[in-house]
Amino acid sequence: MGLHKDRIVLAYSGGLDTSVAIGWIQEQTGREVVAVAVDVGQGGEDLQVIRQRALDCGAVEAYVADARDEFAEEYCMPALKANALYEGKYPLVSALSRPVITKHLVRAARQFGATTVAHGCTGKGNDQVRFEVSITSMAPDLDCIAPVRDLALTRDVAIDYAERHNLPIETTKHNPFSIDQNVWGRAIETGYLEDIWNAPTKDVYTYTDDPTYPPLPDEVIISFKEGVPVAIDGRPVTPLEAIQELNRRAGAQGIGRIDMVEDRLVGIKSREIYEAPGAIALITAHAELESVTLERELHRYKRTMEQRWGELVYEAQWFSPLKKGMDTFIDYTQQYVTGDIRMTLHGGRAVVTGRRSETSLYDFNLATYESGDTFDQSHSRGFIEIYGMTSKLAAARDVRFGRGIDFGTGNLNADN
Ligand code: ARG
């Protein structure tokens, strides 16, 4: 096995469960643990502090990766191009981050000579599937292990372990929620939210302010190039900066709060609160620009594909052949999705008020009812005659067989 004992790379968050997992895995498996923390814009603690904690908890190596730009460019932007909203609502916050985190885990496994990757997920959720299917897709030779699921590392065991070993981690601070966050949004579940009749309370939210008492309306112009935001109010931005700025501005208006019961991959329904102000503002603007620039049939077909794309990504298929093929198609659709969208952000809503594009298919002279109309209305008569032909033939047959539409026998006299 080389110079060191067989090693396991652990996806490390800095929290109680994964901090305990470092020692727990070593005790249970006799193998060394390399901790890897990935910055996907989750904010919170300094990653160097998290790295030191991993070492203090017994990791043989600890590594932090700044994946914020990579996450924004290679994961959030494809989701934006796909206007991806799982079950029509959820912008795939956690589902998008797992593949990029996994990529860094696999890289670390290669670098530090590990044969197994570990993560802190339970056995009930989607994320265990996303981690493990992503790992298999990139590195079929690596094994996976989930200490919470496979090595009986329950919450109580973790608290007890941390106290007995004096680990440098808070065990008393009780957070009733399970939270996952990154630059694309934030997911909050468990606690009293498990009763789906309970309304979320104010303390659930951190990315958004209460939309009931918004500040003054905020007008924003987002410029896109081939489906990707490149400027806000005329100032050039990277994808990461675009998301961050809109998180700030749309968040201040309470945009992007989502309260939903969703269908998990493992079959159960679960209640989750999301806040994704930047993602929702960007998707709203992007979809609008597509309405102006995509040819009708391409637009319609893409909309149906978007739904499937969201399901695939939700269901751990980021690296699957079908998802990759869809990305190629979606990239093709974006070649003319260039232009500006003006929106008013206010009171929980991002409302489009203007569109402007060199590659627009909107033809003012065809659309206008004023002078300058270039649409030849005389062609419509013949078009409708042929277009309605199949319905006309079918209706005539229905009448012949006594199955015509029944208009009733009532008196149509307006006085009745
Ligand atoms: N339900 C979401 C998903 O499967 C989020 C999962 C993580 N949520 C959490 N609150 N820890 O993508």
Automatic annotation (TrEMBL):
<comment type="subunit">
    <text>Homotetramer.</text>
</comment>
<dbReference type="InterPro" id="IPR014729">
    <property type="entry name" value="Rossmann-like_a/b/a_fold"/>
</dbReference>
<dbReference type="Pfam" id="PF20979">
    <property type="entry name" value="Arginosuc_syn_C"/>
</dbReference>
<feature type="binding site">
    <location>
        <position position="120"/>
    </location>
    <ligand>
        <name>ATP</name>
    </ligand>
</feature>
<dbReference type="GO" id="GO:0004055">
    <property type="term" value="F:argininosuccinate synthase activity"/>
</dbReference>
<dbReference type="InterPro" id="IPR018223">
    <property type="entry name" value="Arginosuc_synth_CS"/>
</dbReference>
<keyword id="KW-0055">Arginine biosynthesis</keyword>
<dbReference type="InterPro" id="IPR048268">
    <property type="entry name" value="Arginosuc_syn_C"/>
</dbReference>
<feature type="binding site">
    <location>
        <begin position="11"/>
        <end position="19"/>
    </location>
    <ligand>
        <name>ATP</name>
    </ligand>
</feature>
<feature type="binding site">
    <location>
        <position position="127"/>
    </location>
    <ligand>
        <name>L-aspartate</name>
    </ligand>
</feature>
<dbReference type="GO" id="GO:0005737">
    <property type="term" value="C:cytoplasm"/>
</dbReference>
<feature type="binding site">
    <location>
        <position position="274"/>
    </location>
    <ligand>
        <name>L-citrulline</name>
    </ligand>
</feature>
<comment type="pathway">
    <text>Amino-acid biosynthesis; L-arginine biosynthesis; L-arginine from L-ornithine and carbamoyl phosphate: step 2/3.</text>
</comment>
<comment type="similarity">
    <text>Belongs to the argininosuccinate synthase family. Type 1 subfamily.</text>
</comment>
<feature type="binding site">
    <location>
        <position position="262"/>
    </location>
    <ligand>
        <name>L-citrulline</name>
    </ligand>
</feature>
<feature type="binding site">
    <location>
        <position position="122"/>
    </location>
    <ligand>
        <name>L-aspartate</name>
    </ligand>
</feature>
<feature type="binding site">
    <location>
        <position position="126"/>
    </location>
    <ligand>
        <name>L-citrulline</name>
    </ligand>
</feature>
<dbReference type="InterPro" id="IPR024074">
    <property type="entry name" value="AS_cat/multimer_dom_body"/>
</dbReference>
<dbReference type="GO" id="GO:0000053">
    <property type="term" value="P:argininosuccinate metabolic process"/>
</dbReference>
<keyword id="KW-0067">ATP-binding</keyword>
<protein>
    <recommendedName>
        <fullName>Argininosuccinate synthase</fullName>
        <ecNumber>6.3.4.5</ecNumber>
    </recommendedName>
</protein>
<keyword id="KW-0028">Amino-acid biosynthesis</keyword>
<dbReference type="GO" id="GO:0000050">
    <property type="term" value="P:urea cycle"/>
</dbReference>
<dbReference type="Pfam" id="PF00764">
    <property type="entry name" value="Arginosuc_synth"/>
</dbReference>
<feature type="domain" description="Arginosuccinate synthase-like N-terminal">
    <location>
        <begin position="7"/>
        <end position="168"/>
    </location>
</feature>
<feature type="binding site">
    <location>
        <position position="126"/>
    </location>
    <ligand>
        <name>L-aspartate</name>
    </ligand>
</feature>
<keyword id="KW-0436">Ligase</keyword>
<feature type="binding site">
    <location>
        <position position="130"/>
    </location>
    <ligand>
        <name>L-citrulline</name>
    </ligand>
</feature>
<feature type="binding site">
    <location>
        <position position="90"/>
    </location>
    <ligand>
        <name>L-citrulline</name>
    </ligand>
</feature>
<feature type="domain" description="Arginosuccinate synthase C-terminal">
    <location>
        <begin position="177"/>
        <end position="393"/>
    </location>
</feature>
<dbReference type="GO" id="GO:0006526">
    <property type="term" value="P:L-arginine biosynthetic process"/>
</dbReference>
<dbReference type="InterPro" id="IPR048267">
    <property type="entry name" value="Arginosuc_syn_N"/>
</dbReference>
<keyword id="KW-0547">Nucleotide-binding</keyword>
<dbReference type="GO" id="GO:0005524">
    <property type="term" value="F:ATP binding"/>
</dbReference>
<dbReference type="InterPro" id="IPR001518">
    <property type="entry name" value="Arginosuc_synth"/>
</dbReference>
<feature type="binding site">
    <location>
        <position position="178"/>
    </location>
    <ligand>
        <name>L-citrulline</name>
    </ligand>
</feature>
<dbReference type="InterPro" id="IPR023434">
    <property type="entry name" value="Arginosuc_synth_type_1_subfam"/>
</dbReference>
<keyword id="KW-0963">Cytoplasm</keyword>
